[in-house]
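Form 7-S
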Amino acid sequence: MSFVRSPLVTSALAALEREAQHNADAARLLATIEEVHGFCRYWCWLEVLNHFDCDGPIRSRPVLMSVLLKELSAVNPVPLSLLQ
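Output:
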């Protein structure tokens, strides 16, 4: 079974790739994300994004984080009883 990315994730990664051409921190983040393999890839990417230390801002980082949260919440909905 091959891993298929959603169009939103593909678009967010493309933004990070474009930024990585001119931003060394974005390039390091992209390389770190690309090293992640396995079943829980989006969870691992979210963990990387949360703990990635960089010198300057990565403008595409919040977009990728929000897309991953959207994808993960669609697959793993939280019961309303837990939100109260």
